[in-house]
Amino acid sequence: MSGLGSVTLTPQIEHSPLFSRPSVLVVDDEKRIRDVCIKMLSSEGYEADSAESAEIGMQMIKEKHFDIILMDLMMPGLPGLEALPQIRSQHPDTVVIVITGYASLEHAVEAMKKGAFDFIPKPFSPGDLRIVITKAVTQINTLQDIANEKSRMRVMINHLADGVMTTDNQKRIAQVNPAFLRMIGYHGPRPIGLEVAQIVPDETMSSMIDQTLGALEDDYIDVSEELCLEKTSLLARCVPFKDRLRRTLGTITVLHDITSQKEMDQVKSDFVSMVSHEIRSPMNSVLMQLKNVVDGLAGETTRKQREILGRASEKIVALINLVSELLDIAKIESGLIPQERRAVQIVDLLEEQVAFHQARAQAKSIRLNLEKNRITQVVNANRFNLEEVFSNIIGNAIDYTPEGGKISIRVSVEGDYIAVRVTDTGIGIPEDDLQRIFDRFYRVKNAKTRHILGTGLGLPIVKSIIDAHDGLIRVESKLDFGTTFSVLFPIPAQ
Amino acid sequence: MSEKKLIMVVDDDPDLVESVSMRLVNDGFRVAKAYDGEEAWERIREEKPQMLILDVMMPRKNGYVLCDEIKKNDQFKDITVVLLTAVADAVTSTNYTHRDGITNLADDFIPKPIDMDKLMDIVKDNLEYCS
Q1: Which residues of B touch A340 (CB under 8 A)?
Q2: Residue A197 sits in which domain range?
Q3: Range with the lowest mean pLDDT among A151-155, A445-449, A479-483, B13-17?
Q4: Global pTM?
């Protein structure tokens, strides 16, 4: 692994240098027991101190932190059982092991209730002592690991740019970072323990959390919604977190600020409609004015004049088409075309396309034929988009096939895809150009294509649409023999 | 021979209105003109045309909304409405039917750029033209 952070941090957490020598305080009024304990602990590498009464012990605890306290319960002066709660409240991280005289079980139970970690009955051997101390050290290390992990997690979450909120399964806030509070515009007191609805006025988030909490145990659920607050647009995602038995403990909601993305989309959208109206409309009316003149509505014209105006009209039409295609590609790429998708019977759609293009094909004596093949599978697609795809491909086939040629369209099911193949007997595409025909404004330029009008945007649009539908497009071509375009759309899973 | 039919042409581009009008007059119709949706409504009440050639994208009330209002008005619902749509608006126009409760009630559509001959066919078909 080449990651930096995790690799260098992990060992520090597991073997924190602080605990290379855990400190132990032995509190017992019997000198013999103190001496035995200190001797054994020192030889095992612990830092050991001792006190002969609870009062002295309490004093030492005030001055220094001990990881483990071994304490006799029966001592003159302050009894161990009374000292225990004080130690626990002042030093929650300290592990207390009580030494009980004469196997007094009641005292041991009482001490455990008051927060002792373990007990060791007198008399005990150094081996007995080693076992309880080792157990305590493991406990300390585990607690320390958890504390370090929590701290690391808190710092990480608090410094994320995205908003993060954790709730329990009653929709009460367990944890929330500053970014989250800033995004929802909350300026009140610390919201831990409040219900989500108390700090987020928008009901969407609350219902997202309900939905997440209501999911079945084994379901993986990930609820996403866009939230529109006053000035900001947020993308919210809500997921559950579970215990080892896969019971939902609560939810985590992550907020991502998409305001500027939304604004960009709006700018693009405005630009597209501006271009559409301000450029296309005047060209349309120029075209009509020319037509009126050509048709003699504005008085007699000479043949030469009509010819010139006719050519001017063709140029205008080409410009209008170019603008339309530029707009199409801009819309597809910025996701502005509403992608309303339905089940489309592709054979029906192709029949309509063939009927539509038949007149142009016949004008060039080209046989345009759809092979009858009943395919019952449908594709999930935007019908208008599909029409554009096949209109482009069939239109190209007609443009690039010489008079008397043939264009055949076949539909078949190939694995999980419906495949449409449009094969022509046209001029073919040179191998060098094959790689580039889907590039914008790229047109195959040679003596044979010089007279064919086009913008170089048809196939890029086709490809964008197919990509957006998770489909594939392939092209095979042999110069002077013809070209086959294969379009594959995935069949939706039942 | 009946009285000449009155057709109103509505578009915010005066040159387009002029070109279409010229053609209509040439083919024996009377023409009224308006340049935005609100103005069109006023002129419709005054002149009661038989047909409306109506642009979709216009200031002060767009063509869809105006068409919807006419078709829901008992006095004017019999006016034939032909909408002028830009090609790229084909998606928008189907989409429009789902928005704001506006249903598309136009009698016919013709895409821009306008094919004048096709427009005249539509006009004559819809008005059962007899000369």
Answers
A1: 95
A2: 160-257
A3: A445-449
A4: 0.48
Taking an 8 Å cut-off on Cβ atoms, the answer to whether A337 and B91 are in contact is yes
> Rounded CA gap, B65 and B100, in Å?
10
Among A282, A288, A295, select the one facing B114 at the smallest CB separation.
Answer: A288
pLDDT in tens, A167-176: 998 999 999 9
Examine the fold and report which residue of A333, A356, A386 is the final residue of a domain before the chain moves on.
A333
The residue ranking higher by pLDDT, A114 or A394, is A394
Q: What amino acid is encoded at B49 in this protein?
A: P
Interface of A with B (CB under 8 A): 276-277, 280-289, 291-292, 295, 297-298, 317, 320, 324, 327-328, 331, 337-338, 340, 384
Please report the domains of chain B, with CATH numbers, ordered by start residue: 6-126 (3.40.50.2300)
Residues A295, A387, single domain; the answer is no
Compute the nearest-CA separation of B67 from chain A (Å).
Answer: 20
A11 or A316, higher pLDDT:
A316
Determine, for residues B22 and A287 on separate chains, whether the beta-carbon distance falls below 8 Å.
Answer: no
Minimal Cα distance from B14: which residue of A?
Answer: A285
CB-based contact B88 A340, cutoff 8 Å: no
CATH assignment of the domain containing A45: 3.40.50.2300
Q: How far apart are CA A343 and CA A469, in angstroms?
A: 12
Strand partners, A242: A248
Query: Which DSSP helix (H) or strand (E) runs through B41?
Result: helix B37-47
Rounded Cα distance between B45 and A367, Å, is 54
Q: How far apart are the first and last CA of chain A?
A: 41
For chain B, helix, strand, coil in percent to 5 are 40, 20, 40
pLDDT at A5 over 70: no
Give A-chain residues touching B18 at CB under 8 angstroms.
Answer: 289
pLDDT tens column, A329-380: 776 666 545 556 778 889 989 998 998 899 889 999 999 999 877 788 888 8
Domain count within chain A? 4
Question: Which among A288, A320, A337 has CB closest to B116?
Answer: A288
